[in-house]
Amino acid sequence: MAREFKQITKASEITENISWQEITTGTEIYEPATSLLVQTGDWRVNKPVMVWDKCKQCLLCYPYCPDSSIPVSKDGKRLDFDYDHCKGCGICAEVCPFDAIEMKKEG
Amino acid sequence: MAKQDRMSGNEAVAYAMKQINPDVMGAFPITPSTEIPQYYSEYIADGEVDTEFITVESEHSAMASVIGSSAAGARSVTATSSCGLAYMWELLYVAASMRLPITMAVVNRALTGPININNDHSDSMGARDSGWIQIYAETNQEVYDNFIQAIPISERMRLPIMVCQDGFITSHGVSNIELLDDEEVRDFVGEYEPEHFLLNSEEPYAVGPYGISAYYMEAKRAQAQSMKDSMAVIMDVANEFKELTGRDYGFFEEYMMGDAEVALVVIGSSAGTGKEAVDRLRGEGKKVGLIKLRVFRPFPRKPLAYAMCKVKAVAVMDKAESFSNSGGPLFNEARSSLYDLPNKPFVINYIYGLGGRDITVEDFYEIYQDLFVIYRTDDPEDVYRYIGVRDSRYRYE
Predict the structure, then answer these.
(1) Parallel, antiparallel, or unpaired for β B295-297 and B288-293?
(2) Domain boundary, last residue among B212, B245, B278
(3) Taking the model in full, what pTM does it have?
(4) Which end of chain B is more exposed for a tag (fewer CB within 10 A), N or C?
(5) Do A43 and A82 fall within a single domain?
């Protein structure tokens, strides 16, 4: 029996059950920041861990992070990693001048 | 008011582009399409258009630039030939899967090797599975008319389109042409108002996302549907164009097919030579006809099959070899389209005109003679043939 379908307009409606009639034209996504919906952090093999005693809040790690996984508070202090999206590339640990980030095996 | 002029096919494309005045042109020169960006750069230098003319370092970048500009919301055009088209390969699929209405003038030329700059269809035929609409022209007039029609076809369907013409034969051959007024062209193509575009600050959105196995096939099926649906749009635009100009376009043109007993199917400028052969043979009382295919993608499977069924033997002409051991691309699709019909004609294939080899009225005479042999004997013999090649098995001069 044919299934009712409607054109998808929201990223949250794009699931592995949608039909070809429902998928957006050219697989476009009509809203920003949809990567927040996908937990890509579980690809991680190595995990950055803060050694807060050594951190001077210089914020050098923040612009180096290729996945925007270092949140910074309104008063300009870096917070702990966004582990839902950090892929453990280790760039932050490499660039930290104070050895305040250690890479540890995941799991 | 229509204006009479004389122009080469390349100038006709550039002139059509000028009248359309697109937002962006990605430009890289390659023989025989080089004159298109060359003429266009003169229009820009003279202040006749306000197109952003992006001079890039390769055809790969030419296509990348118009993919970017089209996604941004700009009406985008480019032109290329031969290995330039081959160099765009990867990006042709990107443009089509992103459903970007890019209009590209393809001036058909052989692919290397041996190195050759002359006309055949191996470049665009090779790109036949990339998801682009393909329209071919016999004359300079058709090149001009097709280019203007291509804009609304591609924008209504959100599909990229190749407007193909034969390198040097029409691209550099100057002939009489009837031009529309600038205003008529602008009214015909209208303003480009995409529903979604990257420069729209009201709607941030993403194009060209990763499509894993769970989505890729649905995306491709939807893309295939758009190609099917474009059949109706191509006819709508042709009808609107006829209203404006009186010139009639369809998926193909039937020439003297009413009472024909045998016929040819051919793409591009060689149709003109074929029609001359038809006229002469008709003068001798031979019932011969010709079908000139204009739209190759989408392939007009059913209407073409019915048209071919009017005769008993058909020769399908391929200006591209596909090294398939079973004939050229047009032959395979044309012949396959007949399979389900009860009274189908015999269909044979001729590979012709590779790398600029001339095809003459005498060659067409020979083909029609071969068709009449099949007509009488009901035996097609070897269906995969060549014409115009020196062959030691036969005497030649």
Answers:
(1) unpaired
(2) B245
(3) 0.92
(4) C
(5) yes
